[in-house]
Known about the structure:
By secondary structure, the protein is α/β, with parallel strands linked by helices. The chain has a single domain, classed as Protein of unknown function UPF0759 (TIM Barrel, Alpha-Beta Barrel), CATH 3.20.20.410. 38% of the residues lie in helices and 13% in strands. A nine-stranded parallel sheet has the order 6-5-4-3-2-1-9-8-7. β1, α1 and β2 (39-42) form a beta-alpha-beta unit. α11 (225-236) crosses α12. The longest helix is centred in the C-terminal third of the chain and has 15 residues, at 253-267. InterPro entries: DUF72 (IPR002763), UPF0759_sf (IPR036520).
Amino acid sequence: MKLHVGCAMWTYASWQGRLVPHPLPPRERLRAYATWCNAVEGNTTFYATPSRETAESWAAQAPEDFRFLLKLPKPVTHERRLSAEVFTAGGPLHVFFTAIEPLGRNAALWIQLPASFGPGDLPTLAAFLSRVPQNYRYAVEVRHPAFFEDPAAEQRLEKLLTEADAEWVPFDTQVLYETPPSTDAEREAWTKKPRLPRRTRALTRFPVVRYIGRDDSEQTAEGWQPWADITADWLREGRSPTVFIHTPDNDEAPVLARRFHDDVRSRVPELDVLPEPIPAEPPTLF
């Protein structure tokens, strides 16, 4: 029984020398992060597709059961909006799949859609999911309010995703917006993060949750308690969930991800234990 937990990135300036060793060459940074967490969001692939050589380096650094959630490129999801033209030979989707091939089944693909992608666009999503390679898992994040406020639109999307064996990714921002921001990072997050109802239903064996709390760790941990209960239930049902923990500043995100894992393990004691992180500094003799 395994729960995967992770952060929005695997390298971050405030972690260096404090949570992970510093300096580290690029080819060692994911390896160090992977001693803290067993999953990571690949947000950078939204902005630029990595080279195949880079993906080979990621695969070499990641443990066998590590999970990548890689965001599809912006030209595919936001500029061409999943239209049939994205499948053109040599186009951005072809280049993306060629590049990430070394990651194999460690990679799930994250289709984050713009807020303007609404119920009227569902036939496009269905056609897209019917044509993509089936050797990956797919997870879809929608932000159009109708999918959360209109039961008919919600049911249509759930049916489409269930038939495609694709997951609906919730991005839970409720704790972020519960009280006014108190840090600069929280104020910035208020200008950028979606404000949508919390969704907690899994559609597949591999549910994915994105949760953002506050810069106060205790507020963040208090806010995720419903998710700890839900995640424990998923594990008991035989599902294999992945939960990503964010905060506006992300300074303590790896620590919090492990704390979330501990919270779930207190509910499900048979859950596998995470490995101990490598020390940020070499041990001293005294």
